Please model this.
Amino acid sequence: MNKSFKPSKSSLFLIEILISTLVLSWGTAACVSCFTNAHTIGIKTKELNHAVAIATGYAEVMRGTNGDIDSIINIYPEAIKGDETYFSVFYNEDFEPCDITDAKYIGDVTLTPNGAIQNMHIKIAKLEDNSVIYELNATKYMNTPKG
Model:
């Protein structure tokens, strides 16, 4: 009785299918991870682009007016004035000005007179975790010293 053991071709095929499925699963996981990271980077890029545009707008308005807080707020009627050196503007998810109930982002602007120089510090941040998206410092030479 000489019986030799012959492996079944169907079991080899099953092992090949299992290995192929495993490789395909790893590839799918890597692709999903790449797409998720790309989506996150896209959202951060959109936020940064809007934040830069908003901050630059504040700086340009300060430079184009006489530089005091009242002349700047005349251009931004949705701004909430804190004192004579501070104001904030709230923005929704599309970076349009809104009230605090619909806000997702905030633009904080602080004016600091320094003799004949008016300094402006602009910070655009997320409201949910108060993380800063963009900060900008701007200055303007004033004809008459203040402060």
Remarks:
- The chain has two helices and five strands.
